[in-house]
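Bump. Still looking for (S)-2-hydroxy-acid oxidase structure tokens.
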Amino acid sequence: MGDGGGLATAPDPAAVGRGAAQACCLDDYERFAADVLPTPVRDFVAGGSGTETTLRDNRAALDSVHLTPRVMAGVEAADPSTRLVNTAAAMPVAVAPMAYQRLLHPDGELMLARAAASAGIPYVISTLSSYPLEEIAGAAPTWFQLYWLRDRAVVESLAERAAAAGCSALMVTVDVPVMGRRLRDVRNAFALPADVVAANLATKVHQAHTAVPGLSAVAAHTASAFSPTVSWADLEWLGARSDLPLVVKGILDPRDARRAVEVGATGIVVSNHGGRQLDGAVPSVDALPAVVDAVGNSAQLLLDSGIRSGTDVLRALALGASGVLVGRPLLWALSLGACDQALDLLRTEVSDAMMLAGCADVAAAARLDTRRACG
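Sorry for the wait, here they are.
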């Protein structure tokens, strides 16, 4: 893929094949992806901000949630199907918005979106996708994720393009006034290769492709393109100009959740951006119960950050979420050309977890009791 942080050489097909064939859980894809990806790309995907405290704590917090299964429920087969926002979903999962997926595989977003379509779940297109949103929307049921840009006309244009392309929801990410300082990228002087671009933006920002020692070129790109002053008034302005359901991503405080509902949000994603923004922020799963209490049935809640298994999906449902967003594990699978396999595996895990907990459907999962581990 040329200079910068991209793939300097094609991955070894044997290593790709071994990884795809041997994966037994979502975490396995990360381990096998390490054999096919260069270190800067691995670090770009895996890394968090600062000392990566929140990145680690997301997993620890999820692991501390213990479920109390029900028995003798008379369930022959669990049905994990549901609706997320306004979209039918074969399981309570959507593919999280993730930038520059051509870093992982030449087919990038197109491959992962097609896998989502095959799995029967929504795919969220990133503003910073490396294929145009219109091409991706043609491959799968999609939502569009919007970063607030300095040029409001471009914001409005992206929302209009998303609607015209058939996206069924607009997800606005609100936790990136500036990009968190991601030290792995700084140490690697991470930059995008020339053939991986922000395909939805008419003006390609050259900073993203220029490696500078001690700096992240992607962070420089973000600083030049994103507006740090996005406000609730901006969301109201957008809601008045788009007929798509509005989903607000990046909420942790229940006061912000209530405000999001007031400005018209149909959905809220409880998220700390996978530990990539404020280091030391509360783990998303720890923030979820208070947001559930604050919002009630006023908006649908999704949990993001750290989801790695069907058990994690069940934990989210039991704590009051309607579903989850899954991110990094699917990028690792993408690097191996194994997106379909990874989503099939996740569906199996979700169904198995529901059966073991005595849950015939997602409504039963929402009634499970939970306990937090001591210590």
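Residues 33-372 form a domain with the TIM Barrel fold (CATH 3.20.20.70).

Edit: fixed formatting.
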